[in-house]
């Protein structure tokens, strides 16, 4: 794996001058796409923050071929691109192989786009799907999604005197992708560029379907300061809310194990969307949250030991 300093010298897939919010960490991974591999790539984005902020007509922040698709069909569109490229490569034996990358937020991946994503993975397309998980439909007003954690306040799950934010657990999409029996599934975080770049490289260069779920804190949606996104992502990993792991051909590897797991309250209570949990009447939700994380972490570590 090239050093970060060497990677930084390579041309980026994503230019400056985009319109993402101040402090948004999404460009951390979009700029890596061409820096981790020598393959030519084509990118497709579902409707969402990244798409809107990178392609306001007549401008584009993309330095590679890029396609905007609807919320629900990024994986389907890029499946078609991959199939076309594969056929052309067979017809023209000397044609340079290209790689396809589909990108969507959690709204366009966990929920609206899961049908197309599941189908693309099951069919075995040579495609990396990247989900940037910010825990809600941030682009359309911070509505809850299947990725929204328990207790989070959103515009459709407001915290009040009767209900304390979202009442359901978040969906574990990474496990769902593992259940598709594809060769590579991983979770990464924008705060760890080495781990993140290695996983993007693996996903792009693998011959077959791959899925990468990246924790990407949203400044307005999480109600944090613009300089807190990287710190918040790091806390999510240190509390084991967001474990860094990969499943390579069915074998689990936990890429980072905290020396001392921090309590989830250290992460929750730095965010305005969980501010209401400081009220004693909702303290039980923090305990429930902690129990869920402990259970999921123990399960994950046990999978690694089985390998």
How is this structure best described in words?
With 307 residues, the chain is of the alpha/beta class. It has a single domain (4-306), classed as Rossmann fold (3-Layer(aba) Sandwich). It contains twelve helices and eight strands. It has helices at 4-9, 26-30, 49-54, 74-91, 106-111, 114-123, 173-178, 193-205, 219-222, 229-238, 265-268, 283-306; strands spanning 40-45, 66-68, 98-105, 127-133, 184-189, 210-215, 245-248, 251-254. An eight-stranded mixed sheet has the order 2-1-3-4-6-5-7-8, sandwiched between helices. Helix 4 (74-91) packs parallel to helix 6. The longest helix has 24 residues, at 283-306. The two termini are 24 Å apart.
Which CATH class? Alpha Beta
CATH architecture: 3-Layer(aba) Sandwich
Dominant shape: globular
Quaternary form: single chain
Please tell me the total number of domains.
Answer: 1
User: Could you give the count of β-strands?
Assistant: 8
Low-confidence stretches: none
Short description:
With 307 residues, the chain is of the alpha/beta class.
Keywords:
307 residues, alpha/beta, globular
Question: What's the SSE blueprint?
Answer:
Blueprint: H1 4-9, H2 26-30, E1 40-45, H3 49-54, E2 66-68, H4 74-91, E3 98-105, H5 106-111, H6 114-123, E4 127-133, H7 173-178, E5 184-189, H8 193-205, E6 210-215, H9 219-222, H10 229-238, E7 245-248, E8 251-254, H11 265-268, H12 283-306
Parallel strand pairs: 1-2, 1-3, 3-4, 4-6, 5-6
Antiparallel strand pairs: 5-7, 7-8
Helix pairs in contact: 4-6
């Amino acid at each position: 794996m090239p050093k970060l300093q060497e990677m930084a010298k390579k041309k980026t897939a994503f230019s400056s001058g985009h319109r993402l919010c101040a402090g948004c960490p999404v460009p951390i991974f979009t700029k890596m796409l061409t820096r981790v591999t020598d393959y030519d790539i084509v990118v497709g984005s579902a409707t969402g923050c990244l798409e809107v902020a990178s392609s306001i007509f007549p401008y584009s922040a993309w330095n590679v071929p890029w396609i905007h698709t609807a919320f629900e069909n990024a994986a389907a569109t890029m499946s078609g691109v991959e199939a076309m490229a594969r056929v052309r490569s067979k017809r023209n034996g000397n044609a340079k192989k290209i790689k396809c990358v589909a990108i969507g937020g959690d709204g366009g991946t966990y929920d609206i786009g899961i049908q197309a994503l599941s189908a693309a993975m099951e069919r075995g397309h040579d495609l990396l799907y990247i989900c940037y998980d910010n825990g809600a439909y941030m682009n359309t007003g911070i509505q809850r999604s299947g990725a929204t954690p328990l207790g989070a306040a959103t515009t459709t799950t407001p915290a009040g005197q009767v209900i304390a934010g979202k009442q359901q657990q978040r969906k574990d999409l990474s496990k769902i992708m593992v259940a598709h029996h594809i060769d590579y599934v991983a979770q990464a975080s924008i705060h760890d560029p080495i781990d993140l770049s290695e996983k993007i490289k693996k996903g792009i260069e693998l011959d077959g379907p791959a899925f990468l779920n990246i924790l990407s804190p949203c400044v307005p949606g999480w109600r944090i300061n613009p300089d807190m996104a990287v710190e918040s992502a790091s806390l999510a990993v240190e509390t084991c809310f967001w474990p860094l792991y990969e499943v390579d051909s069915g074998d689990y590897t936990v890429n980072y194990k905290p020396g001392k797991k921090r309590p989830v309250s250290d992460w929750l209570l730095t965010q305005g969307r969980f501010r209401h949990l400081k009220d004693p009447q909702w303290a039980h939700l923090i305990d429930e949250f902690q129990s869920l994380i402990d259970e999921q972490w123990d399960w994950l570590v046990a999978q690694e030991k089985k390998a």
